[in-house]
Amino acid sequence: MLTLDQAIDRTTDITTAARKAGADAADALYYCDASTSVDVRLGVLEDVQRAEGEQIGLRVFVGQRSASVSTSDFEPERLTALVARAVAMAREAPEDRFAGLAPEDRLLDGDAPDLDLDDHSDVDPAALRASALACEDAARAVDGVTNSEGGSASHNRVRLALATSHGFARAYGQSSHAISASVLAGSGSNMQRDYDWHSARYLADLDTPEAIGRSAGERAVARMSPGELPSKAMPVVFDPRVGGSLIGHLIGAISGSAITRKTSFLLDAAGRQVFARGISIIEEPHRLRGLASRPFDGEGLPTQRTAIVDDGVLAGWLLDSASARQLDLAPTGHASRGTHGSPGVSTGNLHIAPGEVSRAALIADIKDGVLVTELIGHGVNGVTGDYSRGASGFRIVDGEIAGPVAEFTIAGNLKDMYASLVAADDLVFRYGTNVPSLRCDAMTVAGA
């Protein structure tokens, strides 16, 4: 694993070499990932894995033609050959009048913000094993838990550097720690599974293994002896653990590629009321120790706090440079890329601003509804907005949680769902995308 300074030097050198080899412009991304994970089951060590890999990806432009190549072989002669091959490939590629580096005047200027993403730790496998065992033991100790799919603990470190031939060169590192457990409760046809997990940049910020395991066990036991739901229209409340997926569908629909290809159900929605009033969706890529924080985007543009939705109104699209040129707009600092191919779009830490009512108040007037705690499948059409997913959770009767339910489907259209969304006040920052409990009245449930 290179140091950050070494990674910057390596990416800068290869873009300089590309220019000397005949490229009009180039950028390079260095990415290194080192991880250790330990899995246990029923109190016995099952697996220990250690993986480390580093790659460098080079993208070159010859006029309006481009090509991308990557390698994990950093020997000088191999890199020289890689550069020559990339330039030769670009000369034979079709022209793309929207291709090119990000506008030079929009690049991050000055030092990248320090977001405190790396605790510089190197966790011993024995410590990971102890955490995984403690997590699973706590889950299995919950009364009613009868079996286990296992516990795990992991540690990961990443270093990333980006350099462009028009002057950008920055790098950052990040660490992450995670613990999880998955267990079963009951037996026979009444066997139910659930899990819990936590991930954090700093080991000191991670929930204790015992707390995570106990939560996994209690979740599994709470799902025992599920009932059935009738098939009809009813209010659906999304638990915070699954509600973030609704925001994921929005991000896909407003990304530059979806808009330029006209494959989005929100094609004409920029600047319009898409969500119910009171709903605001905020991106905070500079949150300290955030799971989705980043100081610059995949093209070297600065990232910043953005109100993607403000009081229900969609601000606009999320654009990399190529899609911005195609739409005759400016890039928004949302480019994301790996060592292969062209940039796409991604976001930093997202959250829905909390509402003004408690979760109890949110469901208090629901005569017959359902609280969804797990979603199954991927039945979402990004072109039409049609939404249909398997689910499980808890029935709501006369404003109270009435017991577990399973094997039902919730369906609707995301346009209608967004327009009826109401947020509770129970927002907790725990994931890369965080939401409070969300109520949606524009849905149909297909049960028994």
UniProtKB/TrEMBL annotation:
Stretches with biased composition (Basic and acidic residues): 100-109
GO CC annotation, single: cytosol
InterPro entries referenced in this protein's UniProt entry, alphabetically: Metalloprtase-TldD/E_C, Metalloprtase-TldD/E_cen_dom, Metalloprtase-TldD/E_N, PmbA, TldD/PmbA_N, TldD/PmbA_sf
Pfam families for this protein: PmbA_TldD_1st, PmbA_TldD_2nd, PmbA_TldD_3rd
Extent of the signal sequence: none
Family of the protein in this entry: Belongs to the peptidase U62 family.
Protein known as: TldD/PmbA family protein
